[in-house]
Amino acid sequence: MKQRSSIIGSVEALPHRVASHLSREIEGGDIIPGARLPTESQLADKFGVSRNVVREAIAQLRADGMIEARQGIGAFVMAPEQRTAIRIDREALKDQRNMEQLFELRSILETESATLAAARCASDDLDAIKAALDRMGGEERWEDGSIEADLLFHRAIARATGNGYIYTFISFVCEQIRQSIHYARLTNPLHDLVEVNVAEHVRIYDALAAHDPQAAGEAMRRHIDGAASRVGVELTAKINRGK
Amino acid sequence: MKQRSSIIGSVEALPHRVASHLSREIEGGDIIPGARLPTESQLADKFGVSRNVVREAIAQLRADGMIEARQGIGAFVMAPEQRTAIRIDREALKDQRNMEQLFELRSILETESATLAAARCASDDLDAIKAALDRMGGEERWEDGSIEADLLFHRAIARATGNGYIYTFISFVCEQIRQSIHYARLTNPLHDLVEVNVAEHVRIYDALAAHDPQAAGEAMRRHIDGAASRVGVELTAKINRGK
DNA sequence: CTTGCGATGTTGTAGGATGACCGTATGATC
DNA sequence: GATCATACGGTCATCCTACAACATCGCAAG
């Protein structure tokens, strides 16, 4: 079959490209909430793809609650508040300010996570956290393994809160940050900073093991601040949070 | 065209039903991460739908990072940690314990949101918050309008933090809770409780207007606790959070 | 004026055809 | 016998056409 003339040449799949394009148009305000999208056929012509591809793209956006399609009428843009999913634009994180804000959110979640975990964690929770910590301090300080153990550590704490939503949200935010960092600079030895990083984790673990919520929370907050500065993000806007 | 024999009779669209079914199978552990899904044709036969429908369902799951399709090989289940989107199962919120956990997460986010907002909010931010408050206390205390103004109030505070991610996360969590409540019990007069609710909001606003972070945070925490108990959810596991 | 019905447009679903890509088996070459 | 090129079947990616389900509008009959 002859190849249609595509909009852009890329490795990404067509539905994803169409979805991204529509998503940006909606996010950017080109199409206001409540407005109707062009028909599937029109979109197919516009992007130079088949109607089938357009439908798959719309299926993705519809799953997020970004648009709503009604049979016989058309597809409509929905208000951004009633999304059924949270999605973070990886591109936006290249902006230092956005990364800073995401770190601030992470700080909030993780600080409280550590606080709750200190009060609730059982012995097996502590074992899991300790295991992750050992992996970090162990021989596999090389790039990937270390980062993986780092995430494992934080997830283990989140799990120790006993709150599945906290676990989900923290996992998500951390993963977004990790991938964004990993993408920005692939090589990151800096062994002296690794030592600092491990030391911060040890302090968190000690507070958790002592079941001291306040100490755990503060250790975690300092750690996130440190982690942020280590990747070049300064949480300048530090407020005198209720401490 | 003759109607195929569908799995279940429902008003939901076919792709969504297939996606939900697959999602539950993955979430439930029936298909472990890394495993390969049946081919599109097999799934089409299994669900009694066309391959087109299966592809739309997979498109949704793929957008969430739940599965990954590789041309020429098949579709594979991915680890739950590397999802690219957060989605909350509305069904699961019917379980009191899950609702309780979601409220706890909301408490964390909103408390810190109020704290930050108190330190950062500008006069126009306060105006927006005040406007929402007036709408709540105003004449439209009837069901929907009141709840809408309530959400508007909380969103205005989140916006005043200047952190877009905090706004997104809080909007999302609040919306999930609202829809779940709205679904559970459609009628909710209880006018005396409405007065209490408004009073709590006033206290939050006063703290924000006074730019008192600690007072704002505590007022918000008390409000969320109160809101939870008003819908029958007790945040029993209250910890001595770093006060 | 109201009501019913057809025309038209839109999304939803079915089904088949072809291209692109992957893994493996087969067979030729050294 | 070992190695490498090629053929083949399986699978996803995309395209196309056709029809069903639903909504809206206009027009004609009552």
TrEMBL record, chains A, B:
One of its GO terms (molecular function) is DNA-binding transcription factor activity. It comes from the Bacteria. Gene3D superfamilies: GntR ligand-binding domain-like, Winged helix-like DNA-binding domain superfamily/Winged helix DNA-binding domain. Keywords: DNA-binding, Transcription, Transcription regulation. This is Transcriptional regulator. Residues 12-80 form the HTH gntR-type domain. SUPFAM superfamilies: GntR ligand-binding domain-like, Winged helix' DNA-binding domain. PROSITE patterns: HTH_GNTR. SMART domains: FCD, HTH_GNTR. It holds the Pfam family GntR.
